UniProtKB/TrEMBL annotation:
Keyword Disulfide bond: yes
Family: Belongs to the N-acetylmuramoyl-L-alanine amidase 2 family.
Signal peptide coordinates: 1-15
Keywords: Disulfide bond, Immunity, Innate immunity, Signal
Domain Peptidoglycan recognition protein family: 22-165
Ranges annotated as spanning the membrane: none
InterPro entries referenced in this protein's UniProt entry, alphabetically: Amidase/PGRP_sf, Amidase_domain, Peptidoglycan_recognition, PGRP, PGRP_domain_met/bac
Species for this entry: Photinus pyralis (Common eastern firefly)
Name used for this protein in its record: Peptidoglycan-recognition protein
SUPFAM superfamilies tied to this protein: N-acetylmuramoyl-L-alanine amidase-like
Gene Ontology molecular-function annotations: N-acetylmuramoyl-L-alanine amidase activity; peptidoglycan binding; zinc ion binding
Amino acid sequence: MQSWLIFVFGLGVLGQGEMCDFELVTREEWGARPPTDVQTMQDPVPYVIIHHTYQPPACSSSEDCIKAMRWMQDFHQIDRKWNDIGYNFVIGGDGKAYTGRGWSVVGAHSPSYNNQSIGISLIGDWRVELPPPKQIETARKVIDCGVQTGKIRPDYKLFGHQQVRQGTECPGQRLLDEISTWDHFSKTPPFVWVPNEIPT
Ligand SMILES: *[C@@H]1O[C@H](CO)[C@@H](O)[C@H](O)[C@H]1NC(C)=O
């Protein structure tokens, strides 16, 4: 009986490890302020949207990636007056995944998609250069983890930000070329959001 229980427990732990096999930095660990409001969304979501941060630039040490997270939270929460950092997850050049709003929470990264997608941003400007392999690998693992844990639909569609929003270069052409080789990448978004502000 005892060894049977240990076996089952062991399988559980192993399963978890396989499902979400990357280093996750909690909000507490990067020194996030609490969100001013949290809106939950219904899981599992049908879309995954990939972004680059453009600014802040790429970080390779965890110290710099943490600074980037705080900078973004200040920018989104204080300057833009959003509830929180806009993305659900952010991937650093240190190969770690940083918790933004996290799973099951409506983001502020892709209008019209925020309540039905997970937005993942890779820190850096990826118009010309490709993120380092470990940063790409972790982004893919976060998506897999979401599918395995019931946060993302198994038949999800993957898009780069510019495919679902007019007038942005995000996530950078080089990164877009990269994700277009991933499973679930789709060339046909259900709709493209067009900003209604009149340019001045
Ligand atoms: C997301 O929000 C839009 C606009 O507020 C709404 O029309 C849509 O039904 C929502 N979708 C989901 C999945 O909640």
